[in-house]
Write a structure and sequence with these properties.
Largest sheet: none
Order of helices and strands: HHHHHHHHHHHHH
Shape: globular
Number of helices: 13
Number of strands: 0
Radius of gyration: 20 Å
Distance between the termini: 32 Å
Structural class: mainly alpha
Strand content: under 5%
Length: 335
Amino acid sequence: MEIVPLAIYFIVSCTITLYNKWLYDYSFKGHGFHFPIAVVFCQMFFIHIITRIFFRFSPNMKVETTTQTFLTGLLPVGFFLVLDVLLTNEALDRMDVPMVMIFKSTSPVFVLLFSFFLLGPQTVSPQLVLSVIFICLGTGVVLWGENQIVISACLFAIMAAACAGIRSLMSQILFQIDDHPFNPITMLHEISFIACVMLIIPLFTFENGFLSWVSSSTPFRIFETFLIVLVGSLLAFVINLIEYVIIYLSSALTLMIAGICKTVLLIFFSWMLFGEDLSPTNIVGFFVCFCGVVLYNWVKLNSDQRSSESIQHLDGKSEQSPLLAHSSLTDLTAH
């Protein structure tokens, strides 16, 4: 059931990675435009507009939000999303993308840790832990030796990975609330609005030169930049929606591992298509990572089969994640 969303995720995510590289290395660099927070703010704003348009034509899809759900679920998810963006940008300012990827690839570890402490040890199996260790270790070996390590950048990237892990896990909890479940489009609608509001202060604190750039640029350059950001916003809408669909259908851990696989595949295709160096150490890393992915899918398949047998009396919800045994925010806050 998750194969189609995962395939779309890989295609769109790789496209966004290449788009962002072109965006900052070639397009915006010539315009003197380097405002990543402003770009994210515009993307979240356009995403919110798109979801509002969607609800005008499909009002039944919108799930009303209670005050408790907003304060204990949506607000923290939006907060950790903004924090993830800010910390990642700080890491990328200090270190190149490949090394940042190494440390952001630790996000599945944080998903397991948060699941263990918040939801209980019964939600984490030894086989699951082993598969995540293999995948993270393999990714680290693939990228090892690419660039010099900058301690501050590493800390920012690890904190960003922790934020990504906890917001994905909390998103899954919101999807599993028994009496008031969310759907991906409603989640995207609410989170994009919260992110826009929370990004206003960082935008004018860290990127106050944005307004100066607008006032000093020609109308044509502003319009051209607007179109470029709009294309990125449409891509961001698709990838964010697909991410929530994957969490909705599977689990937060599946999304985190899909992100790692995308990183490894990008490096592999860079070697095949562009002739970039691939050492024996990198090949070993690919093999270790592949073993971890196979083990994770084996654990996931067995877990889904057991869940299908034990919860057939529920309304079609036959795919429970091995990570989450609870299905309400009250259960989460009670630990």
